[in-house]
Amino acid sequence: MELFEETLTGIRKYIQEKNCRSVTVAEQKSAWLSGQGRNVVLSDDMAVELGNPQMNSVSCLIWTQKPDLIDDGKIHLIGPDIGDSRDRSLPFGKIVLAHVSGFDEETIYDKYKEMEAVRYALDLKGYMIRAVSQYQREWSRISKDAVHNGFSFEVLAEALRHEYLKKDYIHAVEFLFVTSSAEDVGELQEITKNVGRTISALNKMLSEIDSDCDECDYNDVCDEVEELKGMKKTRDEKRRNPHG
């Protein structure tokens, strides 16, 4: 079930056009210390914050069942790394690309929710997700001690990948981080603007069997995404012929 082919193509083009640094990490080189569940980073202790609400921010998860579309362990960075920034507050783009299997109409939304929850499972000393918005935004803080000890996007990606690969339906994970400018993050927002609406349309379609498509706020999304269009057609046929 491919919901994000067009978006994934746009992200690949974006990466190619920007001044991007890429590294590949096959497996964790060393585990970052646990915060023992006490990962609160106060303003006085903060070295860097990413995606403050006053700055541009975008964060989303995109999956595909085509293995050749994901480069496992690859990390793309556009802009300064966490320890290289001269600014305390940075605009932030974070895209997780995952190769998955076994997604169908019955399981796709539940598996998406499981994948979304992975970021909350992280327990990295000096790293705190402060807020996550329904509008695909993420606000996080990194402490002075963590930056001094070498916390980086590579550390964050390694930890996330480790958690994702614990799930038997996730086989590869790739990351894009953007801190270069509000304009670059804004471009990424535009490329991924339909990801959240596609997921919301999927949820509505699966949870509200008797909903009226003509009155639905996501009607345009279903018309644009072939997989959703097919699901919509199947659902309409079942409604017309429930015993067929």
Q: How many discrete structural domains?
A: 2
Radius of gyration, whole Å: 19 Å
Main sheet summary = 5 strands, mixed
Mean pLDDT figure: 87
Number of helices: 9
Give me the strand/helix succession. HEEEEEEHHEEHHEHHHH
- Tell me the span between the first and last alpha carbons: 24 Å
Ranges where pLDDT stays below 50 over 5 or more residues in a row are none
CATH architecture of the largest domain: 2-Layer Sandwich
Q: Report the CATH C-level class of the largest domain.
A: Alpha Beta
- Classify the secondary structure makeup into a structural class: alpha/beta
General form: globular
CATH topology (level 3) name of the largest domain: Bifunctional carbon monoxide dehydrogenase/acetyl-coa synthase(codh/acs), Chain M, domain 3
Instruction: Report helical residue fraction.
Output: 25-40%
Count the beta strands.
Answer: 9
Q: CATH-wise, what's the superfamily of the largest domain? A: Bifunctional carbon monoxide dehydrogenase/acetyl-coa synthase(codh/acs), Chain M, domain 3
For the largest beta sheet, what order do the strands appear in spatially?
1-4-9-6-3
Strand content: 15-25%
